[in-house]
Design brief:
The complex is a heterodimer of chains A (131) and B (512). Chain A is built from five helices and five strands. Chain A has 131 residues and is α/β, with parallel strands linked by helices. Chain A has a five-stranded parallel sheet. Chain A has one domain: 3-Layer(aba) Sandwich (Rossmann fold), CATH 3.40.50. In chain B, β14 and β15 form a beta hairpin. In chain B, 28% of the residues are buried. Chain B folds into four domains: 126 residues, 3-Layer(aba) Sandwich (Rossmann fold); 102 residues, PAS domain (Beta-Lactamase), CATH 3.30.450.20; 80 residues; 164 residues, 2-Layer Sandwich (Heat Shock Protein 90), CATH 3.30.565. Classes of the chains: A alpha/beta (131), B alpha/beta (512). At the A-B interface, α1 of A face α11 and α12 of B.
Chain lengths: 131, 512
């Protein structure tokens, strides 16, 4: 079976190196983007099997990228793991604001992991979504 | 109505005395008789008559002698002299001695009546005058008492005032120096009042303020309240609020009154309040702090995991990456602790001779490579006239480092990637003798809400990457350095941060 591609979108190089290592260790192919804008470009070029998404980033936050993906027919099926320091409630509130502002309604994220997470926890979450 | 008038009749001729006495009694007078000058004097002393009628020629003490004695005892008594016909010399002498009237012998009833009427009128007039004088004296006494009472009240006011009140006369000599003034200036009133001049009481700096007010502001007599630090002769430093009033009378300078209010307690309370507000702010936002600490923990955990993997796989790249992460987060924890300590502690600036431009040079050298790696040009425009100053180089260094880093971040955050990003650092001295640093960036700028929250504890616009303490610490350092910080910003166009510090030459000009 071919290894699955996982895109990490995070502006923090430390978080990126951690997540990449976890993915490597669990035989996934890591792809990397430093912010929301770059993340969307990469998804358009080569849609991954899963996205691990940070919330607060300069230039196109995770809030906007999540909303955009979940309201775009082509990408709404891509599973997303939110991996962030922001509390879930704050994230949901921000999505509601975007719902009203941009139209549409997005589902709650399937998996919402708050930093810091253990490598096992992160690996288990990825495994749960894409095996 | 006058009470019964008492008349003393003196004559050596018994028959005349008796006749006159009878006649006068029937007219309603009370009479006393004496038959010689000596006897007349005694009766005068014992009865104190209002009018004395006396013959001049008498054996022993004559009338003139008696008149003299009487006038000596009481010059206000009326004396009518009875003279022999044509005795002009005696009459003149009698008038000189103070006789009020004279009649010729033999005494005629009508002449006597006229003389008595005149004497009575005089007595009445004199009584009126006396009553009037007495009244006036009472009124003057009352007025004097009122003036004294008011002066006492004003003295008491000055004495019990919570303001120090010090007044100088036109020769700059102290004339008023109240207990509060003695407390502030530490000199005993007895050594100051009417003894010291303004130059002896005040240090030259303070004395000149008030003297210049007199010289320069003749039209503006009242100085607006100002704040200053008074250095007393015994070396205490007292923060005060003061004002002064120059007094002119008919265009002539007559003196100056100075008022001082001791602000020591107020300043102490203010300091306490600021300190407790600061502590409260730190306390209230512990959750924000926890968030930042959590981010550090994420970094450390992630880093150690990467190191573990590196060790297992013998992968040097992984080891390096993990170790970098760990080191970076150790530094973040260190910086955070440092910021928290700086923010929560009172610190006096450590003034020393330093070169502001030199510090800017150091900083640009330090940050140049990092800025270039982010595509940002770092430039400086330094005023070489600044030279060396008295300042705390740590304050300047830390504040500028923080603000330049923010400026670089603002350029990185800018969504307009087509812009040529630039951060410029300027130094100059403004017209108010303040040393100014400007950090100008053309990065993302700030909206009003962000701008307003800049100095709110633990507010950060940088997501999890800011402690929310940077500007707060900078603001505090600048404030402790008696400086100010102001900001101009517009979203999308960039920001200018301006720090102003008092410009002090290395050798203090103030000799106090």
């Amino acid at each position: 079976m071919m290894s699955k591609k996982v895109l990490v979108v995070d502006d923090d190089p430390d978080v990126r190196s951690f997540v990449i290592t976890v993915l490597d260790e669990n035989q996934y192919i890591p792809l990397v983007a430093k912010d929301g804008v770059e993340g969307f470009e990469m998804i358009e070029k080569d849609p991954p099997d899963l996205v691990i998404l940070d919330v607060l980033m300069p230039r196109g936050s995770g809030i906007r990228l999540y909303h955009k993906l979940k309201t775009t027919e082509k990408y709404k099926q891509i599973p997303i793991i939110m991996f962030t320091g922001i509390a879930l409630n704050s994230f949901l509130k921000s999505q509601k604001v975007l719902d009203e502002f941009k139209g549409g309604e997005v589902p709650e994220p399937d998996i919402y992991l708050e930093k810091p997470a253990d490598p096992e926890e992160l690996a288990a979450a990825v495994k749960k979504k894409i095996g | 109505m006058m009470s019964t008038i008492k008349i003393l009749i003196v004559d050596d001729e018994e028959i005349i005395v008796k006749l006159l006495s009878m006649s006068l009694r029937s007219d309603g007078y009370e009479t006393f008789s004496a038959y010689s000058g000596q006897q007349g004097l005694e009766v005068f002393k014992s009865e104190s008559p209002d009018i004395v009628i006396t013959d001049i020629k008498m054996p022993g003490m004559d009338g003139l002698e008696l008149l003299k004695k009487i006038k000596e005892i009481d010059p206000e008594k009326e004396a009518i002299i009875v003279t022999g016909h044509g005795d002009i010399d005696s009459t003149i002498t009698a008038l000189q001695y103070g006789a009020s009237d004279f009649i010729n012998k033999p005494v005629r009833d009508d002449a006597l009546a006229i003389a008595l009427e005149r004497a009575k009128t005089k007595i009445a007039l004199r009584k009126k005058l006396k009553d009037y004088t007495t009244n006036l004296e009472i009124k003057i006494a009352e007025a004097t008492e009122e003036i004294r009472r008011r002066a006492d009240f004003q003295k008491l006011l000055i004495k019990s005032s919570h303001d120090a009140i010090i007044a100088f006369n036109h020769e700059w000599k102290v004339v008023i120096y109240n207990p509060e003034a003695a407390r502030i200036f530490g000199e005993a009133p007895k050594d100051v009042r009417n003894k010291m001049t303004i130059d002896e009481l005040y240090t030259p700096r303070i004395a000149n303020i008030f003297k210049n007010q007199f010289r320069n502001e003749k039209d503006k007599k009242v100085l607006p309240w100002k704040e200053n630090i008074i250095k007393t002769k015994d070396g205490r430093q007292i923060p005060v609020r003061y004002t002064s009033d120059t007094i002119f009378e008919n265009g002539q300078f007559v003196g100056t009154v100075n008022f001082f209010q001791d602000l020591t307690e107020i300043k102490r309370l203010e300091k306490e309040l600021v300190q407790s507000e600061r502590m409260a702010a730190v306390g209230q936002t512990v959750s924000g702090l926890a968030h930042y600490v959590k981010n550090i923990l994420v970094g450390l955990k992630g880093g150690s995991y990467v190191v573990d993997v590196g060790i297992q796989k013998n992968d040097t790249e992984k080891l390096k990456a993990g170790w970098e992460t760990i080191k970076k987060n150790i530094k973040r924890a260190g910086d955070l602790t440092q910021d928290l300590l700086t923010y929560s502690k009172q610190r006096e600036p450590e003034m020393e001779t330093c070169s502001p431009n030199g510090i800017v040079e150091e900083l640009t050298e330090l940050l140049k490579d990092y800025a270039i790696s982010k595509g940002i040009r770092l430039t400086k425009e330094l005023d070489t006239g600044i030279g060396e100053v008295m300042a705390d180089p740590k304050t300047i260094h830390n504040s500028l480092l923080n603000i330049i880093n923010n400026a670089i971040d603002a350029c990185i955050e800018d969504e307009n990637v087509s812009k040529k990003h630039e951060v410029t650092i300027k130094t100059y001295k403004d017209e108010k003798n303040m040393l100014c640093f400007e950090v100008i960036d053309n990065g993302c700028g700030m909206d009003d809400d962000t701008r307003k929250q800049l100095f709110t504890p633990l507010f950060s616009s940088k997501g999890g990457k800011g402690t929310g303490l940077g500007l707060l610490v900078t603001g505090k350092l600048i404030e402790e350095h008696r400086g100010s910080i102001d900001i101009e910003t517009s979203p999308g166009n960039g920001s200018t941060f301006r720090i102003k510090l008092p410009y002090e030459r290395p050798k203090a000009l103030d000799i106090n």
